[in-house]
Amino acid sequence: MASLKQFKLPDVGEGLTEADIVRWYVKPGDVVTQNQTIVEIETAKALVELPCPFAGVVSELLVAEGSTVDVGTPIIIVDVAATAGSAAVASTDAPDEPANTLASTEATATGASSEVDALPAPDAGDEAGSDSSANGRTAVLVGYGPRNDTPVRRRARNSAPRPAAPARPAHAWPSVAPTVATPSNGAHPEPQPLRTEPAGSAPGVLAKPPVRKLARDLGIDIQSLRGSGPDGAITRSDVEAAADTSRAETAARPMPRGGEERIPIRGVRKATAQAMVSSAFSVPHVTEFTTIDVTRTMRAVNRLRELPEFADIKIGPLLLVAKAILLALDNYPMVNSVWDDRNEEIVVKHYVNLGIAAATPRGLVVPNIKNAEALSLVQLARSLSSLTATARDGRTSVADMQNGTFTITNVGIFGIDTGTPIINPGEAAILALGAIREQPWVHRGRVRPRWVTTLALSFDHRIIDGELGSRFLRDVAMFLEDPASSLLARL
């Protein structure tokens, strides 16, 4: 049938070939509007929500949740001709059945006959160079929206109120769905307070979309939680506390004996594995270590926290480690480069896209701060805070993880002294920050308690020889041993 339109899985990144279907937001029979979010997918780099390119009624879901499909594979069929008709018939033939008739009739105004691969050409009368509309339609995210001269038609509503069916999310933010009931004596009911909840969610649960996403990733049933936020809203802390409790209970249970468990290798974990194998066996890694006294760095962090400029920013030693690396890269730009096998060149990059390796429920991701060398210390602190929060929420975009030039991995947050990190593909070096512990240390000829950590630098020995790697690591260490003197020396 000509009215049945297939939506094929698009390439949402650069050269991605496949993605996993994580969650469908619609089911067969649902009315969808143009650009309504219909599915969440996981690529090798990020979680992405896809909008529907046309309006209509969902005819069939072609791919089940949890499946891996290639780019270009049809994933859903939408009947664009059934938008108004099917809903109206359902309302007439089954008056007692809760139906989303209002959404159905309002969707009529979306001009649901457009398709991604067959967009109408601009009218001949359009001004040259203008691409904001075509045939009187306004350009939207995918395809074109309704014609500007199309009147909005709505079916006359029944006089008696009827329950509203839960709407599927047309976007990531909450929608308001009032629920009313008609008393048996026929009297009009008192107005009920409206409750704001994400579409398609369990009733009575108040939580922001990122918090719901975190609960899904951690396997926490959000309906079982008691919220500590305003009006009983469930917060990130509530979910994390539930996850900690769940892990503790799991650890306390005896390990099942016999049998085996198979975990599919997909998404970020699959991409990370491929990248690490490629890097480990194609790049000659060398790792150097240095253990240093960072007591002055810890004091500097505490002083920064007291400044009004940093009042609303969560900062830690990682901020000064990042600053130390940026200053050292300015002295030794060859460390901020990449080996180009195809052209037989070393590409030295005179900008720093500073990557921060982040452990998330989906696996390891390495988003980066673009042009970090140009940021002030306050700007760098805000960027680090935003980057880590976004990664924890699982909202890191594909663009945020592309074109990194140098990476920091903070294994110290897990209580680990240090490690031998594998270089992120497309870079020449990576630095591991170990745990910062108070230890006995010889300071000014006497043994005193000092804050001590170990740094590990892995580098590509084709580009960086032992002398260059050692000088770079020494500069980073000198800054962290005395941040104030290092900054004054550069003025």
What does this structure look like?
The N and C termini lie far apart (72 Å). By secondary structure, the chain is an alpha+beta fold. Residues 87-203 have low confidence and may be disordered. 25% of the residues lie in helices and 23% in strands. It has helices at residues 85-93, 101-106, 209-218, 236-252, 267-282, 295-306, 317-331, 377-392, 466-481, 483-489, and strands at residues 4-8, 18-24, 31-32, 37-42, 47-51, 56-61, 68-70, 74-79, 133-134, 137-139, 144-147, 175-176, 196-197, 285-293, 337-340, 345-348, 354-360, 363-365, 368-369, 406-410, 429-433, 437-443, 446-460. The protein contains 10 helices and 23 strands. The longest helix is centred in the middle third of the chain and has 17 residues, at 236-252.
End-to-end distance: 72 Å
What sort of overall outline do the alpha carbons produce when their principal axes are compared?
globular
H/I helix tally: 10
Low-confidence stretches: 87-203
CATH superfamily of the largest domain: Chloramphenicol acetyltransferase-like domain
CATH topology of the largest domain, by name, is Chloramphenicol Acetyltransferase
Structural class: alpha+beta
- What is the number of domains? 3
Residues in β-strands, percent:
15-25%
Kindly report the average pLDDT value.
76
Structural key phrases:
Chloramphenicol Acetyltransferase, globular, 3 domains, 25% helix, alpha+beta, Dihydrolipoamide Transferase, single chain, eight-stranded mixed beta sheet, 491 residues, OB fold (Dihydrolipoamide Acetyltransferase, E2P), four-stranded antiparallel beta sheet
